[in-house]
Amino acid sequence: MRDTSTRRRARSGGRFVGRREASALGGVSLAAVDKAIEQRVIRSLPGKPARIPVEEVEALALLHEVGVPLPTTVKRRIRDWLLTGREQQERELALGGALVIRVDERVAGIGERAARYAQDRDAFIEREPEVKGGEAVIRGTRLTASAVHARLAAGDTLERLAEEYDYVPREALEAAALYAETHPRRGRPRRPWSS
């Protein structure tokens, strides 16, 4: 068992995402993430907020793609196969005569995207009390993650933002947008009629 956790940590690079980040990256609802944590279908580090290893996001996406209700023990078996069996070149997991699990490129891409996002988030996003009052910004700039997200939500493209902020790597803009989406501002919303 210890060997599996060591391999898992090496694969994730020790990177974690929050519940909302796992939901957005895996394309599943926040309720599905919470249920998977509660049933111990995916693993998370205890505490507030919960920290989920990035490779668990791929398991969330795969279980969502199955599309049929499964017992918790079967979900755990699929998750364990995904994290250990695939490394041993087992391409399929047979769950009885009628159900076979395979990972397609899209689901495998979700795991890679989650790992890349966690790496980029840790490299580019910072919160310092002296910079913008502790709001999340792209490291070395005063460009807030929420500003990037708002611009994209208003119809701007990443290409346009990358041209405008040519000193900011595109990966930083992508990480900032997802970070702001999954870490909404707290407090009263702005009053559009007052501006």
Write up this protein.
By secondary structure, the protein is mainly α. It has 2 domains: 2-96 and 104-119, Multidrug-efflux Transporter Regulator, Chain: A, Domain 2 (Orthogonal Bundle); 127-183, Arc Repressor Mutant, subunit A (Orthogonal Bundle), CATH 1.10.10.10. Helix content is 53%, strand content 6%. The chain contains 9 helices and 6 strands, in the order H-E-H-H-E-H-H-E-E-H-E-E-H-H-H. The protein has helices at 2-12, 19-26, 30-38, 55-66, 72-85, 105-124, 145-153, 158-164, 170-182; strands at 16-17, 52-53, 93-94, 100-101, 125-126, 137-138. The strands form 3 sheets. The protein has a two-stranded antiparallel sheet. It has a two-stranded antiparallel sheet with strand order 3-4. A two-stranded antiparallel sheet has the order 5-6. The radius of gyration is 19 Å and the shape is elongated. The protein starts with a helix and ends in a 13-residue tail after the last helix.
List its traits:
195 residues, mainly alpha, Multidrug-efflux Transporter Regulator, Chain: A, Domain 2, Arc Repressor Mutant, subunit A, 2 domains, two-stranded antiparallel ribbon, 9 helices, 53% helix
Mean pLDDT reading: 84
The major β-sheet equals: 2 strands, antiparallel
Give a count of the beta strands, DSSP E runs of length 2 or more: 6
Structural category: mainly alpha
Radius of gyration: 19 Å
- Following the backbone from N to C, one meets helices and strands in this order, namely HEHHEHHEEHEEHHH
Query: Per DSSP, what share of the residues sits in E-state strands of 2 or more residues?
Result: 5-15%
- Briefly note the CATH topology name of the largest domain: Multidrug-efflux Transporter Regulator, Chain: A, Domain 2
Question: Alpha-carbon distance between the termini?
Answer: 58 Å
| Assembly level | single chain
Please give the share of residues in helix. Answer: 40-55%
Please mark out the parts with pLDDT under 50 across 5 or more consecutive residues, or reply none.
1-12
CATH class of the largest domain: Mainly Alpha
Major sheet: arrangement of strands: 1-2
